[in-house]
TrEMBL record:
The gene is uspA_1. Pfam families: Usp. Coiled coil: none annotated. Keywords: Cytoplasm. It comes from Enterococcus innesii. Transmembrane segments: none annotated. Residues 6-146 form the UspA domain. This is Universal stress protein.
């Protein structure tokens, strides 16, 4: 049986250390397989409304887009620092779970999704991240969950 060669790797990035760790590992997997990494930030337009804020206006949306672009730039800078150039940044809108599990994998022919075990949300850290858990259940391709790295004393 031939080993799976992952050519298109999707990584959800949200500014957390775990997401960046997942991205760094994705770069190494892509390098070994002559593949490409898709670094995706998803702007969930329902979050401000659910948190009791007014509906998402254009200034909040612009701030979110700027933050997303900065995260992608950070990923590309890291990749360049380790001599890897095959990184595509994606800013998507909607449900983070659906985007990572089905929408983006279908659109970009993804064969591996890599996500951090939990993201920035404190409730998600309590359980194994709800996004990671959803992606495991719903993705139609392989999923690799990146555990938190141990800090060295």
């Amino acid at each position: 049986m031939e080993a799976q060669r992952y050519q298109n790797i999707l990584v959800g990035i949200d500014g957390s250390d775990q997401a960046m760790s997942a991205f760094k590992k994705a770069v190494e997997v892509a390098r070994r397989n002559q593949g490409k990494v898709y670094a995706a930030t998803i702007i969930d337009q329902q979050v401000p409304t659910m948190m009791g804020y007014a509906p998402l206006d254009s200034s909040i949306l612009e701030q979110e887009k700027d933050t997303a672009k900065n995260l992608i730039d950070d990923c590309k800078a890291y990749a360049k620092s380790v001599d890897f150039d095959l990184v595509e940044g994606i800013v998507a809108y909607g449900s983070i779970k659906d985007a990572l599990a089905t929408q983006l994998p279908d659109k970009y022919d993804i064969d591996l999704i890599m996500v951090g075990q939990s993201g920035l949300n404190a409730v998600e850290r309590f359980m194994m991240g709800s996004v990671a858990s959803f992606v495991i259940r719903e993705a139609r391709c392989d999923v690799l969950i990146v555990s938190p790295e141990e800090t060295k004393a």
